[in-house]
Amino acid sequence: MTLGLINANPVVHAKKERIARTDDPHADDAVDPLEIYDILYVRDIRDPEHPYSLEQLSVLSEESITVDEKLGRILITFTPTIQHCSMATVIGLCLREKLKDYFPPHFKVDIKVAPGSHANEESVNKQLNDKERVAAALENPNLRQLVDECLYSSEL
Amino acid sequence: METRAPVQWIKHIEQYVKSSATPSQQAASVDAVATLIKNDTLTLEALVRGMEMYLTTTDSIIRSRGILLLGEILEQLTSKPLNSTSISSLIGFFTERLADWKALRGAIVGCLALLRRQNDSGIVTDSEAKAVAQSYLQNLQVQSLGQHDRKLSFQLMECLLDRYPGAIEDLGDNIVYGICEAIDGEKDPQCLLIVFRIVEILGRSYSGPLEEFEGDLLEILGSYFPIHFTHPKGEDDGVKRELSRALMLAFASTPIFEPFVIPLLLEKLSSSLPSAKVESLRYLSYCTTEYGPYRMAMHDETLWSCLKEVTYISPQSTLAMESESMGGMNFQESDVMKQAFILLQEVIRQSGDFISLIIGDNDILLFLNSLNQYKEFDAIPVQDKQRLHAVGHILTTCAKPSVALCNKVFKSVFPLLMDHLELSVAKPSENSYLDEDCVCPVKFNFGALYLCVELLAACRYMTVSLDNCTSVPGFSDQTWCAMLSDFSKSLVEAFISLLRSSVADKPQSAYVYFGVKGLQVLATFPESFPPVSKSIYDKILLELVSIVTSDCSKAFLWTLALKALVEIGCFIDKCPDSEKAVSFESIVVEKIVSLISSDDSALPSSLKLQAAFEIGATRKVFMLTVAQGLDEAINTIFSEKNDHWNPESDKLMVKLLDTYSQKVLPWFLEIGGPEEIPLNFALSIWDMIENRRSLNLNPLEPTSDVLGATMTAMKKAVGSCSKESQEIIINKAFGVLFSRLQQTHNLGNSSGRDEWLTSLFASVVIALRPQTNIPNGKMILQLFIISLLNGHIPSAHALGSLVNKLPLEITGMDSSRSFSLNEALDMIFHNFIGTSRYDNTSVNDGSGVNISSLRLNTLRIQSEINTVIGLAWIGKGLLMRGHEKVKDVTMALLSFLMLDREAAVVKQFQNLIEEFDEEDVHRLMICAGDAFCIIMSDSEECLNRTYHAIIRPLYKQRFFSTIMPIFLSLVVKSESSLLRSMLYRAFAHVLSDTPTTAILLEAKKLLPMLLDCLSMLSKDVMNKKIIYNVLLVISGILLEKNGQEAAVENAPSIVDQLIELTAYSHMMAVRETAIQCLVAVSELPHARIYPLRTKVLRATSKALDDPKRIVRQEAVRCRQAWASIATRSLHF
After folding, report:
1. Which residues of B touch A (CB under 8 A)?
2. Which helix (H) or strand (E) segment is B332 a member of?
3. Is the separation of the CB atoms in B108 and B153 below 8 Å?
4. I need a labelling partner for B120 at 20 to 30 A (CA). Which of B171, B256, B362, B583 fits?
5. What keywords would UniProt list here (chain B) (predicted)?
6. How buried is B432 (Cβ within 10 angstroms: 0-12 exposed, 13-18 middle, 19+ buried)?
7. Tens digits of residue pLDDT in B118-143
8. In the structure, what pLDDT confidence band is assigned to residue B47 with cuts at 50, 70 and 90?
């Protein structure tokens, strides 16, 4: 049995230009939202349903990431394309996996859906920020495969 | 033969006609038969007779193929002479066949082939061509044919029109009617291109028959304008341009089309599509020139209203990016506007009456009368600025083409502008603005100022283009000239008072920009032009110069004034007329040059020098004056230094010398100026030093900045001289030096003044050409050797240059004065190493060490270090010219390198070495290692192309290949870690300057050593630069195919070493490069690197937390690369 796509016709936005940083060797090299967004390629994660990046579907933007380096906390808020998107948890898992692999482990990462953008906002948030549940989800081979496909997709 | 040949060609025909034949087979058959006919093996009659069956059969498919074959064969025979009988029977046949719609293509191809024949090989007669045309008109329904057939039939028509005008003329109206019918509704771009050409030919050569039908014809063509594809594809751009041009030529082919074309174009101009507007303006400009003024006159009014609409009423222009620095009025015009101005220019040039429309236009007049609204620049809204710009552009376009037009524009506009500027005709006594300084009663009307300056610029353009440096006496009689002369004085005064008033205080003020521009325009009218008299010209120059010399606080004004002066100077250079050039020189150049040496002006010296150089660059004579001024200034400072030395004059000196060596000398070199400049400069410096001899000696402090700048300037100057001049300089320099030496009786005394002398002398020697004779070589060499041992580095450079350039053998008469390389080397080795070329047998016995020959002249360690540095430069000089003695030098350096206390080789010198403490020996060894860096790297100071070094190609590769085996064996032998680290130091220096291609050949041998070298050197923080260079070598190896093969074998150790360096805390570039190398390693064969994966991923996870962002970024890339060689995941 094949289910139809959850959001068959998403709105696709243009890719933004990569912002070139000024080459100042003495610049403050602290971690900032742009780095997470741009340098660490969060924007290039593929959507689970469509061959577009999360940036193109406007799920993520630079503004939706906040960093507090002193406390070592990162908060990522993303906006699912539609209210009932059951892929929201998969997107969240992808973000978490990517940051785990490509980011120093001493940061605490919180991942949330933007307030009001999802029907089951609370339960999604809860799932994404529960260590046990995340670990369990990633042990599921089907989910694991889906997440890997999103992270290492060459379709973009 | 007779019997076999027919069989053969009939086979070809059968092959062609066969329904299964492929296009390439058919082409082959056509070629074969055509060759037979060309060779006269087969006659055309025989062919036709043989093909009779195919040409006349009732099976239309075979018939069409047969006819096509005949046509294509004829196509190949265009240069073969045919007699008139065969041509007329063939053309008759094809003409008749045009009626056979089932076999049409062959008939058209045949007709075309015959009609296109050239005169010398037999052509179709006019009457036959007429028959073809008639048959064409009767039988062909072009629009019902396929694309290719349509194209062919259009080509046939084009050919008929083009080649047989006599035949076509007879057909009269029919032909035009027939063409209309044929082309109506054509849509294919390729066919259309031919259609447009047909109409063009028709228009050009058949205006008679056209009379009746031009309306119909243009109705058909008009629907194609503007060329626009509804389904655009990428490659359409070129096609579109070609079509558009063809259509334009068709439209403009005859003036008869005018009543239809111009209204059409004007109508399309009102379309909202910008591309349509641009196209119609372009067509209009072209048609205007082609139709002529008589035809166009009746459209003048409509044309003007259209142009006004585009340019004035709704101008489409945007403020350009750099507008601020251009006075805030630099508008970027849209394509429509640009095209409109081209059209305007064309129309005005064509008809003199058009201008009255513009001048008399109510809107323009209204605008000019209401200029009072635009008094304050900042208060003008952008839209009105656009208008102002448009009006300015319209007026200048009107004034530019001719004197008469300029008169008209001036008559109607100029008095109005003067009124707005509140200027009156200047009376000799009246001098209202200038006398009362600083008081600026009038607030200038910006609009009027802008238009006035633009108009003046247009006049200048016109006069210069007419004048072309020859005087035209008629100028003074012209109205505009008379008007301008009345006002020129007060205009100049007005501009000047504007610059002096308070508006100039504002940065980037538009008033200032146009004030300066006005002055510049007035000053660049040609000499023959009366309104700007010499006194006015002088006044303008004085004002600009006084701004440049005093007013650096207003940077914008200062830059503009300088730029204006440069423009005026350049203009003088183009028209070298005497009077103004004299004024310019006396007012501007002399003033600016006098500025250089005066120190009381408020201007910073760097600005002074910039001004002097830019003004000087306008003309060679001026630059000579500037160079002289610089010389004098340098001289003054030198002599001042005796009395009271202050750091300020030092700074000025450095700037003066830098200007000389970086700007003035290169400028002269570029224009191929006289050689006296560098020669005189060098000589004058030596003069100065000579004259100072009698004065007190100590105050010439060896202030490094001044000395360095003087040396650079000296090197540059000497380097740009010829052999003869160089000999003069070196003789002079030697004279000064020698007399000084006689005074002190002490070679190499290291007082400050002697250091100056020796350094400058070294600079001269460094820059000499190889051909230049050097007097008293021995003495010079001795001097350098002694001062080198006292730690004078420029002497080492000079020694290197000497051994690089001295002649191998002395030839000719003056052998007594000259000095050969071998003599020099003997002296050098005697002093440094204690060997000469006659007893160097013991130098190298494979171990490469010959300490016994090492003469430690003094026991002071510093002098040993100096010796090493000297040897390095000498070695470099020898290596570059490819001299074998470089080996001895290298060996000596190696022996210094291995002065390790514990090393067995120096046992016999134990006692000697023990006199130094360990630290000193260490220092000496490091210095010897770094000597290899000197030998291999390129130097700015000496031994390069600017200073005429002898450079053999591939010398670096050669050194690399000789020294590498020695290093390898020494490393293997050496036991102490200190010794090894020193060897690796030298090894790293050599490798990092060797071209990658040479390294790649040896990659297999080198890689283990490189890795060992890295681990050895990374223990000391001081080595970070070397480590970085070695890493770059490794990355070079990893990126090349040959190198990768070598890397595969050593992959585990490479990875281990790189991982260690990813945590190298002393230098970010090392960490970054190490990670990049790891990425490169991931490209190696999987089987080899897979076991290393976990290690790399673990190491790079630490790099993810690096304090530098660039390193983190590279770490991410690296992890991705390594993750993707396996399961695509990072889990291990």
Report:
1. 1068, 1101, 1104-1105, 1107-1109, 1112-1113, 1116, 1119-1120, 1123-1124, 1128-1130
2. strand B331-333
3. yes
4. B171
5. DNA damage, DNA repair, Nucleus, Repeat
6. middle
7. 877 778 888 888 888 888 888 888 88
8. confident
Q: Is the dihedral of CA B327, B333, B337, B340 positive or negative?
A: positive
Higher pLDDT, B418 or B649: B418
- Check CB contact under 8 Å for B1108 and A29: yes
Shortest distance, CA B1110 to any CA of chain A (angstroms): 9
Q: What share of chain A is helix, strand, coil (3-state, %, to 5)?
A: 35, 10, 55
With contact defined as beta carbons under 8 Å apart, do B592 and B547 qualify? no
In this structure, what is the dihedral angle of CA atoms B594, B595, B596, B600, given to the nearest 10 degrees?
A: 120
pLDDT of residue B772: 83
Other Cβ atoms closer than 10 A to B92: 13
How many CA atoms lie less than 13 Å away from A62 in the CB half-sphere? 12
Q: Are β-strands A65-68 and A73-78 bridged in parallel, bridged antiparallel, or unpaired?
A: antiparallel
What average pLDDT score do residues B46-60 get? 84
* CA B455 to the chain's CA centroid: 34
Q: Cα B752 to chain center, whole Å?
A: 46
What per-residue confidence (pLDDT) applies to B720?
85
Say if the Cβ atoms of B1119 and A101 lie within 8 Å. Answer: yes
B519-B521-B523-B527 Cα dihedral, nearest 10 degrees: -160
Question: Looking at per-residue confidence, does B177 or A38 come out higher?
Answer: B177
CA–CA dist B446, B515 (Å, integer): 10
DSSP lists the bridge partners of residue B317 as B333
- B507 band by pLDDT with thresholds 50, 70 and 90: low
Give the DSSP letter of residue A5.
Answer: P
Rounded CA separation B261/B247 (Å)? 11
* Residue A137: partners with Cβ closer than 8 Å, 6 or more residues away: A89, A93, A127, A143
Question: Nearest CB to B1129: which of A29, A39, A148?
Answer: A148
- The one-letter code for the residue type at B395 is L
Contact B1089, B1082 (CB under 8 A): yes
Set of chain B residues whose Cβ sits within 8 Å of the Cβ of A106: 1105
Complex confidence, ipTM: 0.84
**Per-residue tokens: B526:** 């040609």
Per-residue tokens: B592: 């600016």
Q: What is the pairing mode between strands A73-78 and B331-333?
A: unpaired
Condensed to tens digits (0 to 9), the pLDDT of residues B90-129 reads: 888 888 888 888 888 888 998 888 888 887 777 888 888 8
Give me B271's structure tokens: 């379309």
pLDDT tens-digit readout, B1045-1086:
888 888 999 999 999 999 888 888 999 999 999 999 998 888
Q: Do B1116 and A21 touch (CB under 8 A)?
A: no
- Report the amino acid identity of residue B163: R
pLDDT at B638 over 60: yes
Rounded (5°) CA angle B553-B554-B556:
140
Q: Compare B436 and B675 and report the one with higher pLDDT.
A: B675
In this structure, the number of other CB atoms found within 10 A of the CB of residue B724 comes to 12
- Angle, nearest 10°, between helix axes B189-205 and B236-251? 20
Q: Which residues of B222-238 are buried (b: 16+ CB within 10 A; e: fewer)?
A: bebbbbeeeeeeeeeee
CA B268, B269, B274, B278: dihedral to nearest 10 degrees?
100
